[in-house]
Batch of 4 targets.
Target 1
Amino acid sequence: MTTWVAVLGACVACFALKLAGYLAPDAWLERPRVVRIAGLVTVALLAALVAVQTVATGRQLQLDARVPALGVAALLLWRRAPFVVVVAAAALTAAVLRALT
């Protein structure tokens, strides 16, 4: 029963947060500081997601072929390579490293 209470509580909290976003006055959302922070939060959350998905397996840190593949992808993105090339090169890097070990 407590699991369902937690799930329903999380649903209510998410709905309330979404509703608060819609009800916020436009003047608050157009402030330069709010716009800048919103952009930085998005980048930080994406970076955290990439880091967790790259070096974590369950509750353990695992440094395997994903780390060098992420490095290759970062290098190619920095050099402004097309996204398809970035994904293919990262996948190829991970596959080669896994085949070698």
Target 2
Amino acid sequence: MNPEWLDAIQWPAMAVTLIAAWLVASKNQKRREHGFWWFVASNVLWIAWGWHAHAWALIALQVGLFALNLRGAKKNET
């Protein structure tokens, strides 16, 4: 069983990652806060795609980045 729609997850994951990076680079604290949560969403999407693609190193990377993004979100709370 290999649902083809899972192949397409990499594209929204990439877009969400770019949006997150744009927001995190903002001088506005609220945008930075949102950016870390967008990164968390991208981590989840990349993990889903990585599982589908058997990209175990990518999954390990995303788990680590997920933890760092939670830390960043916490440190940027108002």
Target 3
Amino acid sequence: MVGGQGSADQADARLWAYRDPMGFQRLIELLVEVSVEYLSGQVDAGADVLQIFDSWAGSLPDEQFRRWVIEPTKTPRWRG
């Protein structure tokens, strides 16, 4: 999404997160918002299981992994 095509190391996304963490945080918040909306619709449609895949988790240092992957997905934000 950030680089315009797939990447083995997601260098463009990691560079943006490093250079402009507040701007990158806004992207993460938007992705969380639309993901919650989409996944909530899946539950409403009868899905019993939901799974989130993260394509860049393996290329992040531990602190960045916590900030950009764990934190945005750990707190339930399901609409009621």
Target 4
Amino acid sequence: MAISNIRLNMESQPAKINLDIQKTVFNLRTTPPSLTIDSEPAIVEISSRPYGGTLEIDQSPCRASMGIKDFDTFARDYADQGRQAILDYIVDHAQQGDRMAAINTHEDVISNLAAESTTQAMPSISWGWKDSPEIRYYANPVRYNPQAAKLDISSERGTVDIAYQAGKVSGRMAQYQSIRFWTTGGNVDIAK
């Protein structure tokens, strides 16, 4: 029997893998920090009464030095003069009594006392300074009402939110690899 040409055929099939890929998800969300400043300025209130102050002029010392006195000063001065007059009277009479009691001096006391009581001293004129009036000034006070400035500061921290999802890779064989041989031609067919 004659052998004809035999031809060897070969066929290969590669492996195939189906991959299921989930990408990594990385979301970053930020909120910036905030700073709020509220301020109120300082206030100073200044107030004063009109005309600046009070002027007082007391002319009683000036009038008193001229003999014009108010009732209280008049009463006080004449009470002092009356007291002094009584003291002078007592001293004068005590001295007269002492002179009368001194018999050993051989003085004619009664005639001398009579002569002394009829004579008057010469009046004297004196020039003097008149007192000045008392002048007083009271300034009206200026009132200050300060109010301090106000400063309010509020802050909020910034935030960072991170959303992370890891990626996944999963695979499955969609087709396995294989090699197939066979012959064609001739009477013999071999497949393996």
